[in-house]
């Protein structure tokens, strides 16, 4: 980097060294320092050319369609009189423990964030995610192959289904924080099938196990253990859906409670309007729906 001061003959010549407008239109960006065009690849393998685009929310950087990330050329002040010219530079990617390429960038809000390269590529070349829940998914299950034809926005449910199809989804003992082993899970399932012991009685014999037996019984957890045992093993208790009251109903409930003779109790009103006695008590006491009191 060279340091220039006001009055130096080369100051005006170096002034345009900023983000090139062509970057945001998808033109070929200048190679980073020490790079030669066509000699780099971001997703593995040698590429002949890379298309670079600016990243929404990270205007100081650009990402390529092959998974490369670079910081753009810019001028920064060193002191009151000096100016530093920072050339564009290709950034070194970090590999997370789960195998995804990540890079730490300074956002336009002034905060640093460690973002996956796959998400940066979709933001730049595809557009923003359809919702805040969408994730950058690799279609072939390889988190290191960052190419546009291998990336797409997907919901967590769709992404998890792809992991199951690719064989990369961890379950059972393979999960680092698994609550029990498959042998213990099999013993619990057989106990649920062959005895009439309650959940608390079963867990009393497994003091080191913290697991929801109701979900095991329904087949929501540990369904891969003893698939020959049909789920649910025991009848599942079904709860009525929660009832959401309107403001008019709340006003009517309070009017009945205050003026009807004989005055109905909170349990009677709870059964009439399909809510729990606890919620009805909170409505009558003014703990909830305070604006309607």
TrEMBL record:
InterPro entries per record = His-Me_finger_sf, HNH_nuc, NUMOD4
Q: Where is the composition biased (Low complexity)?
A: 30-39
Regions of compositional bias (Basic and acidic residues) in chain numbering: 1-15
The protein's matches in Gene3D superfamilies, at most eight in alphabetical order, are given as:
3.90.75.20
Occurrences of domain HNH nuclease (ranges): 117-159
Q: Which domain of life is it from?
A: Bacteria
| GO MF annotations, alphabetized | hydrolase activity, acting on ester bonds
- Indicate the transmembrane segments per the record: none
Region labeled Disordered — which residues? Answer: 1-51
The segment(s) forming the NUMOD4 domain are 50-104
Can you say what this protein is called?
A: HNH endonuclease
